[in-house]
Amino acid sequence: GTRGRSIVRKMAYGNVYRKLNRSRLHRKALLKNLAIALVKHERIVTTLAKAKEMRRVADRIITLGKKDTFHSKKAAFWWLGQNDLVDKLFGPLRSRYMERQGGYTRALRIPNRLNDNAPMAILEYVDNELPPLREPKMKKKRDFTSSSELVGTAGSSVDPDPAAVASADTGTPV
Fold first, then answer.
1. What whole-number distance in Å separates Cα of residue 123 and Cα of residue 120?
2. Secondary structure of the chain: what % helix, strand, coil (to 5)?
3. Can you tell me whether residue 52 is helix, strand or coil?
């Protein structure tokens, strides 16, 4: 037994993708179906684990579309299986992402599913024509118009006396 001894854990070599609790063929079919839905609708709702795994596949499919060779069209047809989706991939999607070097998809978390509390996400292509789900986060710009930041007393909570500031500028004592 292992009484009194530590249990040696197996290293995680070769675990490079999520198994999603499915067999190899079921997982491949699931990813193909998600790829078809994503190219067709450009935004899908799925579980967070499937969305994170699907990002890899979706980025590879867009990269196939950017290559525009016979082999890449054949590989894209294997993933998508429909001529109209392959035409969309090598048409508008290709022109949209030609200058982008990667990161073609984003996964936005949404509230958990009600029946089993599974973490859910919306997977979508960036720069799509669909209405945005949320406002983009803007960096806050610092406002340097207050007198405390101009004088250099930004750490103090008390504003300086205007007469003292005026006399400090002229060099005369108060």
1. 10
2. 45, 10, 45
3. helix
